[in-house]
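--- STAGE predict ---
source: upstream dedup step, 1 unique chain passed
mode: sequence only
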Amino acid sequence: MRSLAISTILVLLLAICPVSPRQARAEVKLFPIPAISSSKNDGNDIGLIVPALFTGPDGDLKYLVAPMVVYNSIVGTRGTVNLFRYEPGGKELRGIASWTERIERKFLLSYVDPGFSNGRYSIGFSAMHFKNATVRFFGLGPTTDKDDETNYTAAETRLNWKFGVYANEVTQIAVSQRLRHMQAIQEGATDLPFSGSNFPNAPGVGGATVLGQRISFHYDTRNNLVTPTDGMAVTAYAELNYNFKNGDHPLYSRYGLDVKKMFASESKRAILVVHGELQATIGTDVPFFEQSSLGGQNTLRGFGVDRYIDKQMIAFSVEERIHILRARLAGVMADFEIAPFIDTGQVFNSFKNVSFKDYRITPGIGFRGIIRPNVVGRIDYGFSKEGGAIFAGLDFPY
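--- STAGE serialize ---
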């Protein structure tokens, strides 16, 4: 997701670009911006991004187009085009095309409409193909050592769709299906040992083709799906998966519970967000990349992506989002926030093995750029005993 991470910087850096207030009318604004990023797993990026913001006569953001060229310290020069189309009611069309000098490719198309057919249903679909040459694997379990770090290239194709029915304004029952085809892991782009050599017996090293069916329950009282300031969201799901490449133990299941609650001050200039997540995977020879994991831009932000992997996972986070600035950008208002946070959690093989000594804690601080109601750009720095990590994204972490 590195291309998304770099494009996020445009939202945070637009504040330094002088923009004069204008009358509400359709307009286009271009902002050539240096793109500089650093990631624990993905290396360092430097280049140029030229985002274009298209606003309608009402002043609302309609399109965000962000072509860019960057040089990455691991995989070389990358060209990327990001396209986002926003419509009323939370509809979003997203497209990404990226081609890198060494190994990496990415193509993504997704669409979501949370209020389909006059708000009675929600629909969504996405298709993605990518090769990520900087994926890390430390082995399975909550106590894996940093010295066991290895690297591989993940070559994947993913397809999924989701259809939800609203029981009332805040309750939804949804069914979804996904297809994930993972090729046998290949040599990575770093100087680290190859994961396939150091962990030849890890389930999934030879690849997997997984068809999954999920039923989920959603309870959501937040005042906005993308840029909420108040409310609560609860998601519970059960999923049955079939791995066509595992003849002996093809079936496994996954169950999860995700809860997030927002406590806003009267002025909504300070918002406390509490997030908890529990996940359980049940089955034999479940591919390691299909198991529960911690680390990355949404959990344990002081560690790299998928730092800890095992069948079960529990995570808890607290974040305080503090408003610091409002500015007009390309005819729309943008809010900027600072967000100190603390993440904790652990992975484990079974619930009887849960131990407080295996919990990892990562404090940190984040910065947010928000164009309501559709766009969030963020950069987070989390600290850990392994040196900390920086992440960026085009959404809130939870």
